[in-house]
Design goal:
about 425 residues; Fumarate Reductase Iron-sulfur Protein, Chain B, domain 2; Rossmann fold; 5-stranded mixed sheet
């Protein structure tokens, strides 16, 4: 506790209360409450370090009203690392007050990799008992309210895939004359919900004569756990993944999910405590590449097929501010013949998903998402591409609520179309 407070004070003292964070915070813009801003949370944590405020459940609730979109970090003139500060605060608050039972059970389940996998496979089989098809065909609706799961009877969610990605593809995806060898870290959503996007990534890599290994012992990246304050589970998953990925001799570690990529590339450095594992992570973190970043490095194939559509692109927070990737997806998409690329206003602004944030604060997240969708629809695009499955899920829900015909695809799926691999 004392160590955390000392770390907080190094950041808290930098804040000059200028309010710049108010202009970029989507939660503040939706809720119009000072305590949702970074400045407001900094003031609350300052009161904690001064002994004026305790680590109460009420404070925990206020600290949870943050998307961790990192928008306030680059805009802060004083350089306050609000993202790191608020994660540390959530860790201390979770240690003091615990987490909601549903979250605790879910996060604990992530540590039992085989049981978690079996549970989701069984969930895919029996999901029809709990969910029904949405009228617009975009996904599923709960048959009855499920507040403990953050669901309502109006939220549209994607169905679990009948066959996960790692069941569809072998662990080793060979090519005749390999020019490289990579590990594909699928994460959870590409594996269990959007396996077609994962297949597209593997097909693209194989088209470049890259051998693709999909480690069977990989676990969830841990982002849902450690961003909620459960560092015990987050650390366990981080260290397990590092051990698995460090065991192979790979030219790169490919990700197709911005949250997974940011965790593997950067955030594990603040979570891992085991010195040996941390050294492993330091050696492999530089190999972590989003599929678009890796593909730009390889160079696109010649003779791309025409993709006749109008497309716009949404920057996931963990990609643009977490991994520093913004040019690469656009560079690829603009190179596809027949594809009309139209930039939307505020493309890098958060869509409101924020992982478990949209489950707890659905109405706020929907307001934020509506702004995103309004900007997307003004482009006249048929397709919205993105590199984050959580964003894809949330945006698809919003489009369904609005009755929009716009499709949401993973960037890799659009590339696969141009490669003639769909």
């Amino acid at each position: 506790m004392e160590k955390s407070y000392a770390e907080w004070q190094k950041q808290l003292v930098k804040c000059i209360r200028c309010g710049t964070c108010r202009s970029v915070c989507p939660v503040f813009q939706a809720a119009d409450n000072e305590n949702t801003t970074a400045r407001g949370k900094v003031k609350l944590l300052e009161s904690v370090t001064e002994g004026k405020l305790a680590l109460t459940p009420e404070l925990q609730t206020r600290m949870s009203k943050c998307l961790l979109c990192k928008a306030c970090v680059p805009g802060c003139p004083s350089g306050v690392r609000t993202d790191e500060l608020f994660l540390s605060a959530r860790r201390e608050l979770a240690a003091k007050n615990g987490l909601p039972l549903a979250k605790k059970l879910a996060f604990t389940g992530l540590t039992y990799r085989r049981l978690f996998d079996l549970g989701l496979k069984m969930g895919a089989t029996f999901q029809g008992m709990v969910f029904k098809d949405a009228p617009n065909g975009r996904g599923k609706l709960a048959r009855f309210p499920l507040p403990g799961a953050g669901l309502s009877q109006r939220r549209i969610i994607p169905p679990l895939a009948s066959s996960p990605l790692r069941s569809r593809l072998p662990e080793r995806n060979q090519v005749a004359s390999p020019k490289g060898r990579v590990a594909f870290y699928t994460g959870c959503m590409l594996n269990y919900i959007y396996p077609e996007a994962g297949e597209a990534i593997v097909k693209i890599l194989k088209a470049h004569d890259i051998e693709v290994i999909i480690p069977s012992r990989q676990s969830c990246c841990g982002t849902p756990a450690f961003t909620s304050g459960d560092y015990q589970v987050g650390r366990y998953l981080a260290e397990e993944n590092v051990r698995v990925l460090a065991a192979g001799n790979y030219d790169a570690i490919i990700t197709g999910c911005a949250s997974c990529g940011a965790a593997l590339q950067h955030e594990y450095g603040t979570i891992i405590e085991d010195d040996k594992v941390k050294k492993m992570w330091e050696e492999l973190s530089g190999k972590v590449k989003d599929i678009t970043q890796f593909l730009v490095g390889l160079g696109l194939k010649d003779n791309l097929r025409e993709v006749k559509a109008t497309l716009t692109y949404h920057d996931p927070c963990h990609m643009v501010r977490g991994m520093g990737i913004t040019k690469e997806p656009r560079q690829i998409l603009k190179a596809i013949p027949g594809l009309k690329y139209v930039e939307m206003k505020d493309a890098a602004k958060c869509c409101g998903a924020g992982g478990t944030f949209s489950m707890v604060y659905y109405d706020i997240s929907r307001t934020i998402n509506d702004w995103k969708l309004d900007n997307a629809e003004k482009t006249g695009a048929d397709i919205l591409a993105t590199g984050c499955s959580a964003c894809r899920m949330h945006i698809t829900d919003g489009l369904g609520q609005k009755g929009s015909s716009m499709k949401v695809l993973h960037t890799a799926e659009v590339i696969a179309k141009a490669y003639g691999l769909d």
